[in-house]
Amino acid sequence: MSKLDTVIHAPNRLQICAALSTSAELEFKFLKEQLDVSDSVLSKHLKTLEEAGYISINKRSDFARPRSWIALTSLGRKAFAGHVAALKDIVSGLE
């Protein structure tokens, strides 16, 4: 049986990982809009995920405007898949 990952388990971090799992990378502003949170709230969650090695943040300029692009690392993809498996185990145990 898989174990829940306490880093990913927080609702906003779970949503961040879910969104990132479908793309190579996503822009900070897009994630902020999807989660409907402030810059500071998103930054805090991204920092937690980055410290765990689950995401990488790449800052680059597009049209002279700095932007942050976030991607799941291979460790992050593995951790997210394990967390989803643990959630499925819990749900299937209820049937």
From TrEMBL:
<dbReference type="InterPro" id="IPR036390">
    <property type="entry name" value="WH_DNA-bd_sf"/>
</dbReference>
<dbReference type="InterPro" id="IPR036388">
    <property type="entry name" value="WH-like_DNA-bd_sf"/>
</dbReference>
<dbReference type="GO" id="GO:0003677">
    <property type="term" value="F:DNA binding"/>
</dbReference>
<dbReference type="GO" id="GO:0006355">
    <property type="term" value="P:regulation of DNA-templated transcription"/>
</dbReference>
<dbReference type="InterPro" id="IPR011991">
    <property type="entry name" value="ArsR-like_HTH"/>
</dbReference>
<dbReference type="Pfam" id="PF13601">
    <property type="entry name" value="HTH_34"/>
</dbReference>
<dbReference type="InterPro" id="IPR027395">
    <property type="entry name" value="WH_DNA-bd_dom"/>
</dbReference>
<feature type="domain" description="Winged helix DNA-binding">
    <location>
        <begin position="13"/>
        <end position="91"/>
    </location>
</feature>
<protein>
    <submittedName>
        <fullName>DNA-binding MarR family transcriptional regulator</fullName>
    </submittedName>
</protein>
<keyword id="KW-0238">DNA-binding</keyword>
